[in-house]
Structures are given as structure tokens and as C-alpha cells.
Design goal:
The complex is a heterodimer of chains A (654) and B (118). With 654 residues, chain A is α/β, with parallel strands linked by helices. Chain A folds into four domains: 53 residues, no CATH class; 169 residues, Thiamin diphosphate (ThDP)-binding fold, Pyr/PP domains (Rossmann fold), CATH 3.40.50; 176 residues, Rossmann fold; 161 residues, Thiamin diphosphate (ThDP)-binding fold, Pyr/PP domains (Rossmann fold, 3-Layer(aba) Sandwich), CATH 3.40.50.970. Helix content of chain A is 38%, strand content 14%. In chain A, helix 11 links the parallel strand 7 and strand 8. In chain A, helix 3 packs across helix 4, helix 10 crosses helix 13 and helix 15 packs across helix 22. The N terminus of chain A is likely disordered. Chain B has 118 residues and is an all-alpha fold. Chain B has five helices and no strands. Chain B starts with 5 loop residues before the first helix and ends in a 15-residue tail after the last helix. Chain B has a domain of 80 residues: Cytochrome c-like domain (Cytochrome Bc1 Complex, Chain D, domain 2, Orthogonal Bundle). In chain B, 46% of the residues are buried. The chains are: A alpha/beta (654), B mainly alpha (118).
Chain lengths: 654, 118
């Protein structure tokens, strides 16, 4: 802006220097005026500007060569909007400042709405949790190098959990025009290499037309089962350059048409159906077969057609826990045919591993099934396994293998099974169902009795924690958005879970720090559907990036976070204890309960105060089980009003 | 949920019991000292502070196994439970732990717990 009164202005740097000199002189001045030396001409506190400085600061600046026409980043927003992406959780970064500006000003900060995040891993995990409710991917933006490095753990979890999301890293690709200093540290030749091992696809568009094609392609690939994350490197220069014609036309936006998921080969489906229909004791094991809510109903149909028990490994809500065919992992022991649907680890489904220090420390293996048991696998993951990260687990030979999406294959398999069941088998199948009803009822009783042990204990038993919570939410349209602590299994054992949103599964890659941000992302999706979100929040998980609490408060995302605060990284507590014993050494506990390096105590973290400081309603620490119900009632009232609430509950370890 | 350890644990328990079971004489333990020893020696880590068990370890209380049975198992386990030799856990501590487990109250019948019958 042009200065109007040059006479009263001065060069700022020289003005400040003069001020400092004057200040020093004042400080040294004698206290009494009578002691003062005779007056000498004062040195001015601000020097007059030189003619050059005065001209620079007072004349109307020359116009810079700014970008004419529509900025490229505005067109990028048009592309993003064409795909109906609702939210954009992100931590701001200069390398994407142009598209950031376009999103909030040109795009009106709507579809997508920018959600302010305090860590890139939180942004990615929010997108992860959001998808598991909404079934639609989100976009996140980050700095190409430092932000992408922060984001990597979240991307890996999404990869392992087969969740689509689009991560775009800003990058100053053109080294000759790259701003010096920080932006250069934040640039790289190939930022996508940071996540290439655990993304389905990536690209570095070099023109706006290239961007629009790549963005739609990225979305399409992410959303084709097996789902997965995709990455784009977005040049800062490309964001800022004006739209221009390519081949005589302005850039266009390709139409997105969803790809139908891959189905099992007809012959393989028939062979699987023949084996299942003629089995004496078929068992179905599933991990992520209910890719959508429809998958639950399909699996119920198949299970009932066969009266086959279903073991749900629970990376999704695949099968109702209230169904009499729902069974524990031991159901495979006497199976003669096992159908595995989207299993993460078929080997460990049919084999055992004992971490007992045997085999020179590597543990001992054994089979869990009869030697002639036939194995059938339907898994889309075979279509996109990569070599570096070992999420494909140990190799398991199977008898029928379909590289196909289980949910998409189930309709054909159900029909094939119904056709293949011989009339002579029908009474035996019905009898199998009756036996399953009896064992289901017995198992339910045993589970509830196990939950009753230590019912009044302090710290509070995890079974009591879970059931006190359920008692308060059971009449709501509830959604358990996260309970990401290994071995914390009471919800899936005790709660009547029947709908897809009742249980979202875990992180996928077991990267600690997923629970808090993923639950906020899922709660965001539930908010839009009018559902009540609850999470069981582990203590260690929350401390990875607690800033997501602020994001939830800032964007008014209602969530009840009930803490499973066992004051330690409990999986590691047990690992170090085990190794100490194997080596016949007393585990060094320091002053804590668990081995040195595994406890989160002394001092105890006051999570309720942490949450309060970021705008949450919170209470704790709650150690007496009798105090849980009233605290839950208060917290639920807050969440119903549209705000997040946290209860810091001291619990038993598992 | 996957719990692949249980069959192997049961097998090891039976084997250890058959080979090594001999009646041992123990001094009567102190439940109060046993509670502290239960924490100090890390028993709570897999079995819970009240011995209620969980995903990583079976229930120990109420109604614990006899002390001499427990002694054999604890000393010689080669399943998922790591062995506790006398270097790590003294016989006195073990007797106190057993007394603590014996002192824990019986669990209520789940049918009488309204929250377990939603």
C-alpha cells in the first residue's frame, strides 16, 4: 500500500537501531536532572531515510508479473469437486499454498471442507476412519517431504487395512525456480517414493490435463477392490500457473465411472461350492469380507445355507455376533472344509505359533487342523500384494484359490452352494444348525461368566468398562468407531453387533496412534448420519498425536472417548517380561509396575486435563467402577449436544 | 479374535504335570504379601491385578489351582507362559501369591449382574 505521509515515516531497520541506541543512552542517564551534563545537540532517535529508501517505501510499487487468468489450482479444485469428496483433513504447508487458497476461496471451503489438523498422520488416519463409515474416500494434502514423512504411518495402516484415500504432497519440483531455504529442504525429486511400497498407485502430473486425468485415475484405482491408498506429487509451479490450452483445448475433467470388483472364476466357484456342500463340518473364516454393509447379509445367507459356523476375525463387522453360527477360532479344529474370506493371515488361521523361546528363541509352530482338511481362499489382496512390507504373512497352500473380491463373489457362491447340496445331506445340515445353536448358547454363558470375574475390581476391569458403557448407549444408534488396543476384545465378545457400523475393525498395520484420529474421522462421518460414536481410547495411542483432540473440538465432531488407560504399552510390558524370564533374569521394573521402558506412570498423565485444554468436556481419573455410570451419563449428554467428551478411566491391563 | 496359544498351553500343562508333579510342602503364605508379589513379579501383566485372566493369560482366581500344581507349572512352563525359576520368583513369594489368589472373592453369577444381561 502506498504511503501518504512520507515526512513522518522512516526506514524501519534504521529506526529500530536508533531506538535501541536511544534506549541505551536513557538507561545510562543520571537519575537526577541536577546532575546532568550540559545539554548537547540530541542525536535523532530515527535517522532520515536516504532518497533511495524513501522512494522504495513511498512510491507506488511497480506491478509484478502476477498470474493472469484462472489459476491452475482453481482448475484442480474443479477436478476434486467432480468426485464429491466431502472433507479434506490436512496440516497446512506452503508447498500446497496455491491449492489451499483455491480450496477455501475459489471453492468456498465446501466439498471438500478443509479440516485443520495438527499432524499429517492424524489427517490420514481421520480419512481412514471416515471411509469405514462413509464408504467414500477423503483427500489429504501435505508437504511433499516433511509432511509425507509424518503421514507414512497412517498410509501404511490404510494399506494394511485395505482402505482407500488420496494423499497429495506439494513439491517444488523445478530446482531452477525453487525458493531457497526451507522450501528447498521440503522438496525432492520423487516424494511418492516415501509411500510407494504401500500405496496402490502414484503419479507426478506435469500439466493440468495430466493432473485431471491422474486425479480421477487415482480415485478410481483407490476405489477398485482391493481398496488402498494412492499418492500424487503436486508441483507448486503447476498449482500457480494459469490454465492454458493443450492441443487447442482447455483442460477437461474425465468422467469417473466406478470399476466393478473382481469376481471369482466360475469354475473355481463351482468347485468351492461342491466341497462346501458335501462337507461334514464346513467352517467359514472371515476377516474383511463385508466390504460394504451388504456383505453381512450375504455371509449370513451362505452360512445358513450350509449351517456352517463362522469365525469372524473382526477386521470389519462381517457377521452378527448375535447369530447362532457365530463361533470362536477353535471352530476350525474339527473342520473338514474351511472357506477363508479376505483373510489377512490364512497360515495363522490354521496353524498355531507359541512364543515360548523354543527353536533357539523363535518359538514353536503346530497345525490346528486335521491333515486332510480342504482349504478354500477368496481374497482380492492377491491382486496387489507388494514385496517389501510383509503384510502377506507366511505362505499357506490352499486347495481352491480365487484372486477375487469375496463380497462380489458371494452371490454366485451362495447360488452354487444351494444347487450343489444333495438332498441326502439336508437333514444332516439341519442337525448341524441345531448343534450350533446349543454350542452358541453355552459359549455365550461362559463368556458372560468370564466377564463377571473381578467385576468390582479397581482398577476397573475391561469387561466392566465395556458393559457399563454399553448400558448407557444401547438405546442409541451407536457405532463403536475404535478400540485399538491389542487383546481388548470384550466389545466383540459381549456387545450385540449386527450392523456394519457397530464395529469398524482395527488399524490394519498395528501402527500405534491410529485409534484417536481414526475415531475422530469415523465420528465425523457418523455425525453426518446422525449416529452416536463411541471409542475405547488406549492411553499410549492417544499420546502419539493428541492434537487431533483439538481438531475434533474445533470442527464440532461429537465423540465419546472412554479411555482404556492401563498406564503402559501393555503388549511390550508382557514381551519384555517374557524375554527376561526366558533368560532367567529378574525384569528390571525401575519404580514402575512394568519393565523399564514400557510403563506410562510416575507421573501419571492426566488425559482429562489434556482433553479439556483442547476444548473437550472431560472427567477423571475414574478408578472406582461405581462411578462409571454417572460419569458416562454426563459425558453422553455432552456428546448428544454435539461436542466431544472424554472419560479418563484407569483400567486393568487387558 | 485369534487365540492360537491355548491348545499348546493345555498340552504343555498336562505334560509338565505328568512328568514333574510331586507333592511339595509349603509354608502358609500371606495374602497381603502375595498381592505385592503378584505385582512385583509381573503376574498381573497377563492375568490381571485380580487374577481374572484375559486375552493373554487364563483366569487364576477365584479358586486357584493347588499350590504344588502351580509351583510345577510356573517353574517348568514351556508354553506361552514364560517359566519363573527360583532365581526370579522365590518359593516364599509363590506361596504368598497363592494365598493372595485364594483370598480373592468368588465372582458373582453373571445371571445376577444386570449389565451382563442387556
Amino acid at each position: 500500500m502506498a504511503r501518504k505521509d512520507p515526512g513522518t515515516k522512516a526506514d524501519r531497520r534504521k529506526f529500530l537501531a536508533g531506538f535501541v541506541a536511544a534506549g541505551a543512552a536513557t538507561a545510562l542517564k543520571p537519575a537526577r536532572a541536577a546532575d546532568a551534563a550540559p545539554e548537547t545537540p540530541r542525536i535523532p532517535s530515527a535517522l532520515r531515510p536516504s532518497a533511495l529508501v524513501a522512494a522504495a517505501e513511498t512510491e507506488t510499487p511497480k506491478e509484478l508479473a502476477r498470474v493472469p487468468g484462472k489459476p491452475g489450482s482453481d482448475f484442480m479444485v474443479d477436478v476434486i469437486k467432480s468426485l464429491g469428496i466431502k472433507y479434506l483433513p490436512a496440516n497446512c504447508a506452503s508447498s500446497y499454498r496455491a491449492i489451499h487458497e483455491s480450496l477455501i476461496n475459489y471453492g468456498g471451503n465446501s466439498m471438500p471442507e478443509f479440516l485443520t489438523c495438527m499432524h499429517e498422520e492424524s489427517a490420514v488416519a481421520m480419512a481412514h476412519g471416515y471411509f469405514k463409515i462413509a464408504g467414500k474416500p477423503l483427500l489429504t494434502l501435505c508437504h511433499g517431504t516433511v509432511g509425507m514423512q509424518h503421514a507414512t504411518m497412517g498410509v501404511y495402516n490404510a494399506w494394511c487395512d485395505r482402505v482407500p484415500l488420496i494423499i497429495v504432497g506439494g513439491n517444488e519440483l523445478d530446482a531452477a525456480h525453487r525458493p531457497p531455504g526451507v522450501p528447498t529442504f521440503h522438496s525432492a525429486q520423487d516424494i511418492n517414493s516415501l509411500v510407494r511400497d504401500f500405496t496402490k498407485w502414484d503419479d507426478t502430473p506435469v500439466s493440468l490435463q495430466h493432473f485431471s486425468q491422474s486425479f480421477v485415475r487415482a480415485y478410481k484405482i483407490a476405489m477398485t477392490p482391493p481398496y488402498g491408498p494412492v499418492a500424487l506429487s503436486l508441483d507448486a509451479g503447476l498449482q500457480q500457473e494459469p490454465m492454458k490450452e493443450y492441443d487447442g483445448k482447455m483442460p477437461t475433467i474425465p468422467r469417473y465411472v466406478p470399476t466393478s470388483p473382481p469376481q471369482g472364476d466360475t469354475g473355481a466357484v463351482k468347485e468351492a461350492a461342491r466341497l462346501l456342500a458335501n462337507a461334514q463340518n464346513p467352517v467359514i473364516v472371515t476377516d474383511r469380507s463385508a466390504r460394504t454393509p451388504a456383505g453381512i447379509g450375504l455371509l449370513v445367507q451362505l452360512a445358513e445355507a450350509l449351517q456352517a459356523k463362522v469365525v469372524d476375525q473382526a477386521s470389519r463387522m462381517n457377521f452378527p455376533t448375535t447369530h447362532y453360527l457365530s463361533a470362536g477360532p477353535g471352530a476350525v479344529d474339527n473342520a473338514d472344509v474351511i472357506l477363508g474370506l479376505e483373510l489377512s493371515d490364512f497360515w495363522a488361521t490354521v496353524n498355531s505359533y507359541t512364543d515360548n523361546g523354543g527353536n533357539e528363541g523363535i518359538g514353536t509352530n503346530g497345525t490346528r487342523i486335521k491333515p486332510d482338511t480342504k482349504l478354500i481362499s477368496i481374497s482380492s489382496v492377491e491382486l496387489n500384494t507388494k514385496a517389501n512390507y510383509q503384510d502377506f504373512q507366511r505362505f499357506q497352500s490352499v486347495d481352491v484359490s480365487m484372486a477375487a473380491d469375496a463380497e462380489a463373489t458371494l452371490p454366485a457362491l451362495i447360488e452354487a452352494v444351494k444347487s450343489a447340496i444333495p438332498d441326502a445331506k439336508k437333514s444332516a445340515i439341519a442337525a448341524r444348525g441345531e448343534a450350533a445353536k446349543k454350542s452358541y448358547a453355552e459359549n455365550r454363558a461362559r463368556t458372560r461368566q468370564a466377564a463377571a470375574v473381578a467385576w468390582d475390581a479397581s482398577p476397573i476391569s475391561t469387561a466392566r468398562l465395556v458393559m457399563e458403557t454399553f448400558a448407557q448407549i444401547k438405546d442409541l444408534d451407536w457405532s463403536l468407531v475404535a478400540a485399538d488396543s491389542p487383546g481388548f476384545v470384550w466389545p466383540t465378545r459381549l456387545w450385540p453387533m449386527e450392523k456394519h457400523h457397530h464395529w469398524l475393525g482395527r488399524s490394519g498395520g498395528y501402527g500405534v496412534g491410529y485409534g484417536a484420529p481414526a475415531s475422530v474421522g469415523a465420528a465425523l462421518a457418523n455425525r453426518d448420519l446422525g449416529r452416536f460414536s463411541v471409542s475405547f481410547q488406549p492411553d499410549g495411542d492417544l499420546m502419539y498425536a493428541p492434537g487431533v483432540l483439538w481438531t475434533a473440538a474445533k470442527h464440532k465432531i461429537p465423540l465419546l472417548a472412554v479411555m482404556h488407560n492401563n498406564r503402559g504399552y501393555h503388549q511390550e510390558v508382557m514381551h519384555v517380561q517374557r524375554l527376561s524370564n526366558f533368560r532367567n533374569r529378574v525384569a528390571n521394573k525401575g519404580n514402575d509396575f512394568g519393565p523399564v521402558g514400557t510403563s506410562i506412570m510416575n507421573p501419571d498423565i492426566e488425559y482429562h486435563k489434556l482433553a479439556e485444554s483442547m476444548g473437550w468436556w472431560a472427567k477423571g481419573p475414574i478408578k472406582d467402577p461405581a462411578l462409571l455410570a454417572p460419569a458416562l451419563k454426563e459425558a453422553i449428554a455432552v456428546v448428544k449436544s454435539g461436542q466431544p467428551a472424554l472419560l479418563n478411566v484407569w483400567t486393568q491391563p487387558r | 479374535m485369534k487365540t492360537p496359544f491355548i491348545p499348546s498351553a493345555a498340552k504343555n500343562l498336562l505334560l509338565a504335570s505328568a512328568l514333574l508333579y510331586v507333592p511339595l510342602a509349603f509354608a502358609a503364605g500371606s495374602a497381603e504379601k502375595g498381592k505385592a508379589a503378584f505385582v512385583k513379579n509381573g503376574c498381573w501383566e497377563c492375568h490381571g491385578f485380580a487374577g481374572q485372566g484375559g486375552a493373554a493369560g487364563p483366569k487364576l482366581a477365584p479358586d486357584p489351582k493347588p499350590l504344588d500344581f502351580m509351583q510345577v507349572f510356573v517353574r517348568h512352563s514351556n508354553g506361552p507362559m514364560p517359566p519363573y525359576t527360583e532365581t526370579i520368583l522365590s518359593n516364599d513369594d509363590l506361596a504368598d501369591i497363592h494365598a493372595y489368589l485364594e483370598s480373592l472373592p468368588k465372582a458373582p453369577d453373571y445371571k445376577n449382574v444386570p449389565l451382563l444381561n442387556p
